[in-house]
Amino acid sequence: MSLLRNLLLAGVAAASLSGMAYAANDMSPEAIAERTKPVGSVYTAADLEGIVDTAAGNSGEPAAPRSGEAVYTAACAACHATGAAGAPIKGDADAWGPRVAQGRDTLLSHALNGFNAMPPRGACGNCSDEEITNAVDYMLEAL
Ligand code: HEC
After folding, report:
1. Name one Pfam family in it (predicted).
2. Residues 35-91 pLDDT 10s
């Protein structure tokens, strides 16, 4: 009985060893390429994001929406910090009062689509709707 058992075990061991040997000696082009590929060819998740962004034509636009403060500083402050072109200055409650009374939706619509001397999106070509909204909310929070 134990002889038979040992023979069986030996057979199983031999079979699995030959299986491992076969895998290591796989000379198919795919197996060789896989074993010999340079470590540097491995993409990180960040690389892939960049590739996907570039393929979608989005390069230059960050994946996460910028904060209201960042967008305001970059695209709105030129007029809304100075009053240029008659823009209501951030924090000037008198100038903003009647505008706020129109409701936030109207303000957002004017910011996105333009309103008199207020250019659509504040002329920010790479600002998303969400970023313009963030910038409007940032100015409203200052009142
Ligand atoms: C070139 C100057 C300029 C820039 C840049 C600019 N604005 Fe304006 N904005 C104006 C002017 C002028 C008005 C007032 C228009 C009017 O009431 O006739 C205005 C008005 C507004 C209003 C009030 C609209 C209303 O209904 O009363 C909002 C909201 C606004 N801007 C948001 C923004 C945001 C957000 C940005 C940046 C992404 C921005 N603006 C950039 C000139 C500018």
Report:
1. Cytochrome_CBB3
2. 777 666 655 565 545 544 555 555 665 569 999 999 999 999 999 999 999 999 999
Percentage of the residues of the chain whose pLDDT score is greater than 70: 65
Q: Which atom of ligand 1 is nearest to the CA of 99?
A: 27
What are the sequence ranges of the domains in the chain? 21-63, 68-141
pTM for this predicted structure: 0.68
Which residue's alpha carbon is at the smallest distance from atom 18 of ligand 1?
Answer: 116
CA of 79 to the centre of ligand 1 (A): 8
DSSP string for 120-135: GGGG-TT--HHHHHHH
Q: Which CATH number fits domain 68-141: 1.10.1740.10, 1.10.1710.10, 1.10.760.10, 1.10.3720.10?
A: 1.10.760.10
Measured from the CA of 121, which atom of ligand 1 is nearest? 38
* 95-100: average pLDDT: 98
Q: Whose CA is nearest to atom 43 of ligand 1?
A: 118
Give the distance (Å) from ligand 1 centre to CA of residue 119: 7
